[in-house]
Amino acid sequence: VVQAEAIIETRVQNFMHWLSNREIVPTIVRYQQDAEALRQAGPRARGASAYVSLEPCAHHGHTPPCAEALIKAGVGRVVAACVDPDPRVSGQGLAMLRNAGIKTEVGVCEAAAQSLNAGFIKRVTEGLPLVTLKLATSLDGRIATATGESRWITGEAARRRGHLMRATHDAILIGRRTAEQDDPELTCRLAGLEDRSPVRVVVDSALSLSPACRLYATARQTPTWAIAAADAEPARVETLSELGMEIVMTPRSAAGVDLGEGLRALAGRGVTRLLVEGGARIATTLLQAELVDRLAWFRASRLLGADGRAAIESLALDRLADTPALLRLTNEVVGEDMLETYLTGR
User: Fold this and answer.
1) Does residue 135 share a domain with residue 111?
2) Do residue 18 and residue 153 come from a single domain?
């Protein structure tokens, strides 16, 4: 909120909050931040300009419309970086403001705002979360030695960056095999960001992972979901539900579960940004199904050789023309390792 060319109040949107029943509602916090900025500004907001990364909402949901809050605050001008693609909004928020006599502008820094809101936009327009596949490998693309040793291929700085990535995603997904072999926590363990741990999701078609594993045993401390096939044993569903787990049922496929439908189910529960951490089978399945939007590849300065375990299994490609198209965004040094980030060319 800006008055006389001076910033009088700011609030940062945050999509990573969940309700007590563990259903994520990412829009709640965004709307509350607009209203909170106005509340903090108080009378200083009257006649001021409000700058927002997304068009103010115009519908009643868990909170009143942001457009309504802006009108009540008496702001004189609203600058929205991009229109909200949600059919319940889609220009109606700006129209509400104009009808109240408030000047509006849209499209300022639009590309940056669309990148910032990419997860929300994809969930609204495609019914899917924005998927980032994170890989941590040796220089020759191996995630473990032939015996399965993988801790730690990359250095401490890279692992800290990985934890920061967890803090900026709504949910994190791994397969049953990785959960079984590594028994990970999948939390953010950076000082001060522990409460930003994402919802943990395990692809466990038959719900065969032991209830004693860390993910399932701590489901009441950090929300944990399992994507299972619809024909999973009811007794297993009941056992895990009693631990505080959320079971996401999807159609059974040759691979166990239909991951595409699984991701749609996550989006339906409010997940906008999904981080995938492994393993090779999950990574390969998502790449083949063209469900990966971004790739974050950490490479360590070590070689494991051909007998090491590959990060990506066979893609069954006969021609170079059929390889997944990738657009490199960044290439940076992270401690002793390299981090390359890509957009997929879908």
Assistant:
1) no
2) no
The answer to whether 62 and 25 have CB atoms below 8 angstroms apart is yes
H-run or E-run covering 142: strand 142-144
Q: Do 64 and 194 have their domain in common?
A: no
Q: Which two tokens stand for residue 202?
A: 């395990």
DSSP state of 45: G
CB atoms within 10 A of CB 109: 14
Same domain, 103 and 189: no
User: At 45, which CATH number?
Assistant: 3.40.140.10
The CATH number for 152's domain is: 3.40.430.10
pLDDT at 58: 82
CA distance 273 to 283: 16
- Are 171 and 178 within 8 A, CB to CB? no
Q: What is the pLDDT of residue 123?
A: 94
CA distance 324 to 295: 11
CB 329 within 8 A of CB 341: yes
- Cβ–Cβ < 8 Å for 336, 296: no
CA atoms within 13 A on the CB side of 324: 24
pLDDT in tens, 84-109: 898 888 888 899 999 999 899 998 88
Contact 120, 26 (CB under 8 A): yes
**pLDDT value at position 3?**
59
Angle at 287 between CA 285 and CA 291, to 5 degrees: 95
Using 70 as the pLDDT threshold, list the residues of the chain that sit under it.
1-36, 61-62, 346
| CA separation for the pair 293, 280 (Å, rounded) | 17
Same domain, yes or no, for 70 and 217? Answer: no
Residue 122: inside a domain: no
Say whether both 228 and 153 belong to one domain. Answer: yes
DSSP element (H, E) containing 268: helix 259-268
- The parent domain of residue 161 ranges over 128-344
Quick one: 208 and 309 in the same domain?
yes
Share of the chain above pLDDT 70, in %: 88
Q: How far apart are CA 114 and CA 121, in angstroms?
A: 8
